[in-house]
Write a structure and sequence with these properties.
One of its GO terms (cellular component) is membrane. The chain is an alpha/beta fold and 192 residues long. It contains eight helices and six strands; from the N terminus they run E-E-E-H-H-E-H-H-E-H-E-H-H-H. The longest helix has 13 residues. It starts with a strand and ends in a 15-residue tail after the last helix.
Length: 192
Amino acid sequence: GKTTGTDARMLYWFDEKEYPVVRKPQGPNIGEQKDILQNVIDNKGKAIVNECMAVNPDYQIVFQEKLLKANVGVIVNVMEDHMETLGPTLDEVAEAFTATIPYNGKLVIMKDDYTDFFKKVADKRNTETIVVDRDKVEEDLLRKFDYIVFPDNVAIAMGVAKAIGANPDVAIEGMLNAPPDSGAVHIHYYHK
């Protein structure tokens, strides 16, 4: 899998070490994605977890339909970000994100104002929709992490686990044991 949080890194199934993604001078782009996919192929990977970093809707189409052809897609949220390219309205942002919805696959989405919109597109593509709800994530589970975790992220991860047929308990255990992103916020309590 590839993480693009604070520091882009690759994580492999055959090694617990995380490898930095060395960025080219032009920064993250579709060429970087091609290199990542080739690396996974060279290592005989059977699956990849990868973020579509493309902001331009045309690039999203290329990423999904020509490069990756994901069978499980995830749309985390529709928000005011990159409005100069995706906007100017949230409805247009949502429309742009439909480029990443797979055909004959599964789509994991958050329960929100755009759930029905994305579900209609997924249905037309013969794609099963898995709707997750941040409000269903128990506070007790969030407190088990050694760092701050947003309920949205846990809900989405559990939706992906469901999409691939993973045991929910195993998925939770994996999240609890995974090293946090280098940008994760930790809370330390000091007693006098």
